Each structure stands twice: as C-alpha cells, then as structure tokens.
Amino acid sequence: MASVSISNIRNGMTFKHKGEIQSVVSFQQVKQARSAGFYRVKMKSLNSGKIVEDTFNSTSKIEEIRVERRKYQYSYDNGTSLMFMDTDTWEEIPLDKSMVSDVELMKEGEMIEMLFNTADNKILSVELAQNVIREVTYTEPGIKGDTATNSLKPATVDGGAEIRVPLFINIGDKIKIETATRKYMERVKS
pTM for the full model? Predict the structure, then answer.
C-alpha cells in the first residue's frame, strides 16, 4: 500500500477511503482561477458495492491498494456457501453468500472475476459479467401487440431474480439483463 498524490488517479484504480476499499469509476479535475483545483471522484465500494461521489483537494494523498483480478467458474451452492473453481488448477474456493451481491443472477458453469488484495491475498469482491442472459420462469401472460409502451411488469428468471420487463415478455423467453442495475436490456432470439 503506497500513499500517492490524487493527481495520479485513474479509472479502475483502487484505494482506501473512509475505511473502505474503493474502485474509481470516473473522475474529473476541476481547476479554479485563484485557488488550487480539486478532483471530483465517483467510486464504487468493494466492501458494500455502493457507488458514491466525493471531492479531493489537489494536494490530497490517497492510499493506493494493488488488486489482482482472477477468473473463476461458479460451481454450485452447497447451502452455506458458494463454491467457485479455478479452471487452471481445479482448486475449489468456498465463499460466504454475503460476499456476492447478485447470487440469483449467477448460473452454474459461468465465469466470474474475483478481486484479490495483492498485499494479503484476501478476496475483496466478486464481479459478474456486465450482462447475463436468463430465461423467464414466471410472469403474467404477455399481451399481443403491446410492444410500444413503456409499461413494465415483474418477471422471475432462472436463478430466482425478479426483473421488471416489458408487457410482451412471456414465460420461456430469454432476456438480457444488465447485472449492475438489474435492468432488462432486450429479448434474445433463441
């Protein structure tokens, strides 16, 4: 962990802020005529998953944390924890369900990324793919011709997640879901 100037900030950088490990989503340098500028930083907490914004003086120092991303395959839920497998070494890693924010959007066999703190090799967070394709297992029947409205209805997808979908979506349809927001993106043709 190294203390660096805020001027070295970049997207994807991880650092400790207010007791939590944050990942930079975006930042903006603001310059002012008669005083020192500042940085407006949007960051995602790797502990809670919340996205927050904060400002830093141009003279601020931050404690950078080096992370490593490793790909793992989701194997199964054993009831108390989730099991992931390193596809290179076949090593299985159990993880507490509280470490994964979107368990009901995961499917056995899919690849995920784990972020490790390189200093102590501890797992910081688990990240799903940006988009996943899931099959609708329950929703109220669709209305033929109702494709041009902005009305949404609840639908349950395989895995158990509830997503708001357009009225024309039916049971058995495959849909693309944005994992960060849990929003319906489009119907996928089979």
Answer: 0.69
